[in-house]
Amino acid sequence: MNEFPDFSNYGYQVTRELGHNRAGGRVTYLAREINGDIPVVVKQFQFARIEASWTDYHTYDREIEVLRELEHPHIPRYLDSFQTPDGFCMVQEYKNAPSLAELKPWTPQEVKQIALSVLDILKYLQNRIPPVIHRDLKPENILVGDRMDVSLVDFGFARLGGGEVAVSSVVKGTLGFMPPEQMFNRQLTQASDLYSLGATLICLLTGIPSTEVGLLMDDGGRIQFENRVPHLSPGFINWLKKMVEPNYNDRYPNAETALQSLIPIEVLRPPQLAKQIWAIALYLTGILMFAGLGFAYYKTYSNSLKPTPSPPPEPLSLPVTLKADGNYLAFDQNQLSFAGGSWARVYFSVDLSSLPEKQYTTSCQLLNRQGQLVAMGQSTLRLSPSQPQVSCFYKFYPNASSETWTFKFFVDGKLVAQKALKVVDYE
Known about the structure:
Elements: E1 12-21, E2 26-33, E3 38-45, H1 57-68, E4 78-84, E5 87-93, H2 108-126, E6 132-133, E7 142-144, E8 150-152, E9 159-160, H3 180-183, H4 192-206, H5 234-243, H6 255-262, H7 273-290, H8 294-305, E10 320-326, E11 330-331, E12 335-338, E13 344-351, E14 359-367, E15 373-382, E16 389-396, E17 403-411, E18 414-425
């Protein structure tokens, strides 16, 4: 039976161990705040029990320094810290979600959604003054919940700095996910975390465990993965390759640029069947025309294949509900109102109970007022009485002016529901 440390004098009761690095003298516990009965994470650093000195305290003191200044819904909040006889402890908000290190099959569409969410977090970090460089972005430090809620954790190696981050005397990070400039202890830029994210996404897409990412490296240190993902679109593959370019000058310069480049990309390679049909049709048409029978047949057959302009399909008007959580001012299904510094996550739920029970391919899209696609998620679901609804969500922040967004939901390629939402900033 495990004996957990007693932190009751500091106001916390440990319930179980979440992880450990015995060699580094670090153990992470799930605990409860005794007064408020709130779950928290306690990171214990035991310097006296390892071959380390109290000078290592500065590494974790820096993590506290970074976390104190961060306020983002997908970064665990710093709550408390206290010294113990053999080290010290740091207390953070608990995010109840597994990390990407737990192997599971992710669809390419889900991987894209994870990428968009992490890039949004990195964008927040890079827009701070001074910017924050995480330096240890890897599957173990990205948590994903049941509703694809993505959180970035473990800022122990993070650095504060504008532009380029000065080198340190010790290389810190995780092999396979560190960009070359970090491995060789050179100056870091905002493109450095992008390399680590790209390597993480490639692990998810190829099914390679994070501990074996080195298997994808060629002799020149470049990640080779294309032959393992023939189903991905050329655009998505090229985006990933740019993320993990060895030279940071060849990557996207920052998270904002990488995010905007990824949004319109279709992740799956388009089917080749349509091209094959056209080739066969042209071949048959040529034979028939040569035989003197082709013209009438060609006209009829080619017209049947040639796409004809048609109005966009009308939605089937399936029941739609919107709900929201976060730190917003007001919400009434048609309008979301913001105050300064707030945010909201809006869930778009469609009632599919009127559809036959079978497997469907679904797609949720969000468009801005110009009709441009801002975000998209695709999945396959098996409709059943126990799951009559399907939901997707998007996280909103205040804008400088009013903006009308449109949610659209497709089933097997057909538009079945849509709803407009006006987002207003009262700042």
